[in-house]
Amino acid sequence: MPQITVDYSEQLAGAFDRRGFALALHPLVVDLVDTRLAACKTRFRRADETVVADATTGHAVVHIGIALLPGRTPEVKAELTAAVLDLVAGHIKPVDGMQAHLSAEVRDLEASYRKR
User: What are the TM regions of this chain, as residue ranges (predicted)?
Assistant: First the structure.
């Protein structure tokens, strides 16, 4: 915990500094939700195909999902979501003719969550 998953459109593969984003994201999460840096884990999943709106070209998607142990207030989750969106925007280089749609969510892990 936290379990962080980043889905991103293939078109952004060369423009998205994923490692830099993760290395900046982890301390941000630590500061906002009171966890340990060693507990932060981020995985990236490139989506071979994404469709936005009417499927015209020129769109790409980045979605960050952060799953935490329960106990954070809605205000803390909202603050983290906003900070994550600001952070990710700074780690994606502009791509000519491409609009990046960025989104993030913070959710509680289910009671069944275990780690080893």
Answer: none
Q: Is this prediction's pTM over 0.90? A: yes
The number of beta carbons lying within 10 Å of the beta carbon of residue 55 is: 8
Where does residue 50 fall: left (phi above 0), alpha (psi -120 to 50 degrees), or beta otherwise?
A: beta
Distance CA(111)–CA(63), nearest Å, equals 24
pLDDT tier, 28 (very low <50, low <70, confident <90, very high otherwise): very high
Q: Residues near 103 by Cβ (< 8 Å), separated by ≥ 6?
A: 61, 62, 63, 64, 85
CA distance linking residue 53 with residue 99, whole number of Å? 12
Give the chain's domains with CATH numbers: 3-93 (3.30.429.10)
